[in-house]
Amino acid sequence: MSDQRANTATPGTPPTDAPAGVVEPADEFLWLEDIHGSEPLAWAEQQNGRTLAALGTGAYDRLREQILAVLDDTAKIPDVTKRGPYYYNFWRDETNPRGLWRRTTWASYQRQQPEWEVLLDVDALATTDGTPWVFAGASLLRPEPGQPWRRGLVKLSPDGGDAVRVREFDVETRQFVADGFDLPTAKTQVSWVDADTIFVGTDTGPGSMTTSSYPRTGRRLTRGQDLADAPVLWEVPEEHLMAVLAHDRTPGFERDVAVDVIDFFRTRTHVADAAEGTADLTWRHIDVPDDVNVDLHRQWVLFRPQTDWDHDGTTVPAGTLAVAPLEDFLAGRRELTVVFAPDERTSLQGWSWTANHLLLTLLTDVASRVLVLDPEAGFTGTELPDAPELSTVSASAVDDEDPEEGDDYWLTVSGFLTPTTLQRGRLGGAGSEGEPARTVKTSPSFFEGEGLRVEQHFVTSADGTRVPYFQIGPKDLVLDGANPTLLNGYGGFEISRTPAYSGAIGRSWLTRRTAQGRSGVYVIANIRGGGEYGPGWHRAALQANRPRAYEDFAAVAQDLIDRGVTSRAHLGCSGGSNGGLLVGNMLTTYPHLFGAISCGVPLLDMRRYTKLSAGYSWIAEYGDPDDPEQWAFIRTFSPYHNLVPGTDYPATLIYTATSDDRVGPVQARKMAARMEAMGVDDVWFYEALEGGHAAASDNRQAAQMAALSSQFLWQHLAD
């Protein structure tokens, strides 16, 4: 960079926090790790000006406004959560950029223009408080029988980051409760116990947070009590990810639940009968291996193993869903009922309980299916019919505790070219008649999809693994290698990439035209590390095997070139967070495949990632760089350390946010600085001041970041 600094550590010398035997690579840009320091911020501001000057054309401005129109459109489906007789929603638009927390009735929700009761105007609150609040959710207290839903715990972030202030709110008076619960800004876990008591995990000073920056303890806080005086009921080791303490108020099944979240894939769950105080609180461990996911619902306990589970001499394969009566299991009667067994093409993506049924959402070769199971019939069941081809379908209960509507379910359907629809149906059984799902809301169409089509392809990766990907583009696509093509992926944390309608992608890429009249091609790669084929697909790219994810992505890129869809000059890739690490490795390991790369809120410095923001929490995914043996393989996929002077790197945009307290802005800053210092001319950097890990706190900021990325890629790929 033009603004050079002296190295803050002697090259080749371990800093004081490096373990014996680990030689710290030279890092000339450690000074950029001071997130809020005046010099790093001045550097970021200078870079922002340079980047915006290069992209601030009329085309960029028009694109930003086109995307903003999608995000602000008042005809979008307002997602709702039912509590009692009301349907709650959080909404942003042009008039309300910070948003409205609001509610309506079912009769009103079904109308084209529902009548909403505004509970909290976040823009007005931000003005009153002088703080640019970002709404981060609310948790309502389930009332005593016959009483209305009234009290809520509202989470507000001052900058869009994960740290939030928690305040008690009365939805009837539509005001914060005077002398109510009010927790200062921190990464906080909260759960209602009763009208005057909550469970809290938060920052109470030294020793209260884990190395990963999340709560290490769970306290029982009584109204009017000082947080420091609240007794600690649950505590986990500092090196674990976090402690979770929650209260289940389900009528007839009241209990306290404590979870030791060891890392992203290992937990230990304990239950206790709900108690008035703490003296008689006895935790009972649900004794299964740490990598078996545990879920509780009424009398049931569900298990989903991450690896094959030897359960009393019987193997329960990874990705299976099994169920048992909770009290029987705790008493030593450990018989399981398998309700879903995976195969090589089908995985479980999620589940939801209605009053009398269990809904399972599955993927078969990344196409959705929904099963309806009946516990009274031994969890046998049927498949919901007519799932559209190459689409995503998900089912969830509307309100399993409603005495009349407990078996109602939402069905959400979305495809790359099909605007999302929200349907509602009712399952039969238990003395009631079922009703087929009918459409309640349909999202507007934001681009012309008539001349486009969706295809699914499969490619063989370097080790012989068959990898799927979706291609969306013109029906009359000319296979001459000249089509501007954007390849996107993630490949981590067992997160699946499935078909979904995006007006922003449609407007910014699929229907945009080059000077020659070509429109863009958009591609989603379902690479290992994700969850498309269950836990095994994820574990195939963990730690030392991480490069398998990058080989998969590169294989898709090469296949697009080999099939004539595009060529290096017209092929770009984008990814954020773990996807930023993915495309960072495309930059350093496969630069010959891409003409441009957009890298958002990324991990890039894998030597120091555990010391930056919440990075320590991802050791289970990537490995521990402080272990010399693990650093040996981590270094192979650390983009910051694999830059080589003189390499023909593709044009690169790296963007982040100052307020991102999950990944943080540091790694993006350092990568851009090192590339420019090496003489790479076509590298660009942008840092939003707020917005947290999303790099946006409102629709306008989100539109700006989306337009920034898309315009950068289009400028470099569409000529």
UniProtKB/TrEMBL annotation:
It comes from the Bacteria. Residues 26-422 form the Peptidase S9A N-terminal domain. Pfam families: Peptidase_S9, Peptidase_S9_N. Keywords: Hydrolase, Protease, Serine protease. InterPro entries: AB_hydrolase_fold, Pept_S9A_N, Peptidase_S9_cat, Peptidase_S9A, Prolyl_oligopep/macrocyclase. Residues 1-11 have a biased composition (Low complexity). Residues 517-717 form the Peptidase S9 prolyl oligopeptidase catalytic domain. Residues 1-21 are annotated as: Disordered. This is Peptidase.
